[in-house]
Amino acid sequence: MNLCLDFGNTNCKAALVEQDNFLHQFSFTRATALQAIEDILLTYRPENAILSSVIKHDEQITQLLENHCKKVVILNEKTNLPFFNAYGTPEQLGVDRLALAAGALKVFPGENCLVICVGTAITYNYITSSKYFRGGAISPGPRLRFESLHTQTDKLPLLEEEMGYAPV
């Protein structure tokens, strides 16, 4: 069983995966991340872990993973991935976007993919059918857009983000 961790700007998420099947999914805050991960490790005992983090995460989390898992991968621009990263400045590319590209290639092999991810920011990521990550664009997410329009205009109210669908 594999533990996949995604530390975003707003939320921390985790999933337990085995043979391409999601067994459990979790969501927690940065403040509770260490305890939540320890609970997951002790309860489910995954063999491997991968951490994708766009924030500076607590090094205790890395230690915890290394103490409980046989193999731990901290995703970065040097991680061996199933595509060629043709992004001009790979060291500046968010690792969340690398994870999205790898996932798109797994789900849609041999196809051109535009992967759009909506969170604190909205990212648009293009991967060619020949496995080249070409980059894309990044823009403010819904909450940042709502706050900006509210504070930078006289009459627009502050809208609340409402999820009318289940997050993927």
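the 2nd protein, sequnce then structure:
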Amino acid sequence: MLVSGALFGFFTSCLLALIATPLARRAGVAMGWRDRPDGAHKGHLAARPYAGGLAVVTAVTISISIFYFAFSNYAPALQTLLLAIAPGALLVASVGLLDDLRGCRPIEKLAVQGVALLLFQTSAYALGIAAGLTAISTGMLVLVVVLLNAWMLGLTNSMNLIDGMDGLASGLAATSALALCALGLILTDAPIALLAAVLAGASLGFRRSNRRPARIYLGDGGSLFLGFGLAATGVAAWLHQPGLAQALALILIMWVPLVDTGTTILRRLLSGVALFQADRDHLHHRLLARGGTNRSVGRHLIGLNLLAALCGLAVHAGVNPWAMLGLTLVASAGVLRAALPLRVTFLVENRRMGRSGDDGRSGTQERAA
């Protein structure tokens, strides 16, 4: 029954997104709601409507409403989770849509996200979702709350930051949401499985129009909504069964967006660049700059995210967490190495050539070229 419910939610949301996306595109064109190339950090050549958030939010909202009445036996538990997540998710989607329309300062978006976090935390505590935290000591509870806030803010914005290439953010959101759905099924937690399935379906349905050449973009409204939804659903899953291994499992499930955000923040801090300054130096930008195509880069990053998500599910099932983390790091090494700046790759290869003599010369010359 639970599996059939998740499948129903997934396919309903996917179908609704397939229907809503062209309508949102037409609305965006009619309103002049377009993302225009600027010759700087925006790589597309023609203006595209970025009303994708309308399509995704509509698909998720309607499909959950249909499920609520079609599977009434899950309604009470689903209502509890929705009351905790929906206000914050709709709030960040609203500020994202407003930013798409007229532009908002980063501090304004962060302030709204802070309010959304407060709404989620207050609701989760009041509705008993966070009941498991009451057994934790005060000092440890403060640390847990700080880390959960960092997780929520980080993942919410990571989906926005990585939304710089056709089909990438929607593909990553779909793989992570499918893994969260599987996690909900493992935990036999119907609301988590359903909500994740609906997010996955909406992401995949939207992606059909978002693949290269994209006809519509997610915009901040869509990316922030998906990021917050995934982050909050992940927190709810962790609260169902808290622990360090379970936390690592969630990190692996959201691997590529989190790695991209982490490396972006580190790079900007080290280079003295403002944290909120847009650039073309994300993982996908670097891979494209090194000769990758949109299709190959997308496949590699989405494939890596899927592999990491499977490792996360394995950790949650009891497989050695260090082994799964190691496997993910090894799988990531090739992608990350290819994303290194050319000068860094050249220096690394040059040092290897110095140690190994003439044996590595031709390889070094090929890579440096």
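The radius of gyration is 21 Å. The chain has two domains: 2-242, 339-369.
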